[in-house]
Amino acid sequence: MIKLDEFVSVSDITTPEGIDDVCQRISDKEKQIDTRLEEILSQQCQLEAKMRGIGVALSSLTLVSEKSQHLSEMINHTASLAENVSAKVRRLDEARSRVSECQQRVHDLIDLQLCSQGVMSAIREEDFEQGAAHVNRFLSMDKTLLQKTADDVSGSITSVSKAVLTLEKATIQIRQMVNQKFDEAVKKDDLASVERFFKIFPLLGMHDEGLEKFITYICGKLQAKAAKELRSSMDIAKAEKRTAVAYADTLTILLENIARVIEVNQAIIENCYGPGRLVQICRVLQRECDDEVSKCVQEFNRNRQTGRRIAQINDYIKGAGTSSAMGHYRKASGGGGSMDKLNAKDIDSLIGEITIMHSRAELYVKFIKRRCTNDLKKSSLDASVKEGRLAELNALLQKSRLNTQMQELLGTYLLFERYFMEESVLKAIALDSLEDGQQCSSMLDDVFFIVRKCIRRSNGTQSLDGVCAVLNNAASCLEEDFMRALKSPLKAGYPTGYLDLAQAYNAFQSSLQHGRLQTSDADQARGRFVAALNNADMSTEFIETLCKMMGEEIEGTFPGISGREKEKLDSCLGGLRAVGDSLKALIDFGFQQLRSSAIKPRIHPWVDQFVTHNHNLTEEELTTYEAGETFAQFLIVQIDGLLNSFKVALTVRNYDALVSIITSEITARMERAIKKTTFNRLGGLVLDQEVRALATFLTGATSWSVRDKLAKLLQMGTILNLETVSELPEYWESSSASWRLTANEVRSILALRIDFKMEDIKKLKL
Fold first, then answer.
1. 77, CA 20 to 30 Å: which among 59, 100, 271, 693?
2. Is 339 left (phi over 0), alpha (psi -120 to 50) or beta?
3. What sign does the CA torsion over 614, 620, 625, 628 have?
4. Helices (H) and strands (E) in the chain, counts
5. Neighbours of 552 (CB within 10 A)
6. How far apart are CA 286 and CA 505, in angstroms?
7. Is the pLDDT score of 280 beyond 60?
8. Are the beta carbons of 590 and 529 closer than 8 angstroms?
9. What's the rounded Cα separation, in Å, for the pair 157 and 160?
10. What global pTM score does this model have?
11. Distance of alpha carbon 587 from the chain centroid
């Protein structure tokens, strides 16, 4: 029903127009209501279908409800049955436990009587194993439970108390006897008896005392043996011709003896005392190890005079007056004055011996850690206790005198190794020579042999810190001493003159071979320049090979390194590789010197002859020009002669680099010469042919790709060889991406053709 108040006001129906308006609005509203009703009625079928579906679902829900109720009843019934069964099981388990406890009490009482009767008999017969077994059984009993059992059994109190008292006295007595017998076996050095009574201690509840006594005995044996070996180490070494590593052998034997004690006796200790005891044993053995290692190292320092040699090196460094004194040339020339300079060769074998000593100590520490870790894994201790034991072991080894002595030895090794490396490198530089037919001088192989030897030797210390320190020293030595030796002749430059490089190189070789000056100073300087350039080139390859090879060897020695240690090693190897980058920069510097003094003065006059030729040719002039020696032929002959003289003297990479530099110089000079010349059609044709011939020669002269450097020159020849200006857009569009000339440069080159009109050139759209 429509309410008129929504459409009619008092003022609306005062006029016929107002009444009509109200009627119209009422009519519109009725239409809207009719439309809405039709929409609702149209959904009647869907609503009825949904209602039918709900009715079907309701019937199904009734069935589900009934089944759920049935399932609930079944579950409740099953739970009730399970509760009843579990109650019976609990009662049975309780009964079984009580029966078991009762049986245990009975067994304990029976065993108590048997042990009390048998222990005294075993003591009288000195059957300590049997007596200890009785005592061990008694100690495993609960005395409170025994007394309670005796109270429960009428008439057993007196017998139980008597048996307990007997066994307590027997325990004290047999413990004293076993201690006494063990001490007597130690005095007699009767190993079989020592091991016999050592196995009895844990049966008597004397685990710690037994271990301490046994390890003390072992330490005494080790001490006597170590003292004997230390006294006879030199005599044995002389007999076996191992004098140079006598103390390394002594230390090795000492550590092997301690390791053998652990290896041989670990099984006995585990069987008798149980696993998890090895850390306790190592604590005692480490004290003995520290004492013996200290004696060995002291004897080593005294006989090898390491203190005096360290002082010599330190005084020499201080006397040289610079923190990097070992890396300066004045050392090689006696910069320290009358100072007592240590010969690097004298400490070579000493460095090797220190390396062996340190590596043996590192292997010993790894052995101890591995054995203790495996021993703790077998034990039933809590994880936290195991971690605590391992932390205790690590702290023990870290604070041990063995570790302190080895750190001091490592410091001595690093000082000696650095001195040996740098002094040997400087000696190799001072004794540099060239053999006939060789492109590189002797110092190249000598220097890298020394560096590789030192790095490999550091790898033998089994210390990653030592390896990294030697890698840094090697990088510093190559960066300073070796590169200074290479840079000196390169910095002096290549002397000018008509003597070519091959002649200078051969002259320098001949002079060094005969040991006297046979040529002028300029010839010597040229030879030194070439040798330095070749040495620098080959050094880059040697460094790459050295880094790769040593990286593999070091990772083989220290498998599984990761984290900060891996980053440290990579950083040190990266420092060594950085020397290769410095050497490449040095090679570039050397070629710049060669370019300014030997290449430019010879190439520029040859290329400049291009301007003297006429490039506005007639047919007759072209025929005459081609019949004679053309500019390209002349230039190729000159360049070929120059390259042939260099090819013999330079390494392959240096020769290719030289060809590249010559190509750059020729193209740059030719481009300037072309821009100073005018051409007609035939002249442009000749230029294009000559440029292509020159490009073919230069690309065939080297294994490197130099066509990129010739691209601009070839494009200039193509432009000047066009028949008409209108041909250029076709070339430009087909290969616009590879054009090295800009649009303005193209127009300026086209202007060199006297037969091209400027109006046509300006109209080009590029």
1. 59
2. beta
3. negative
4. 30, 0
5. 10
6. 64
7. yes
8. yes
9. 5
10. 0.72
11. 30
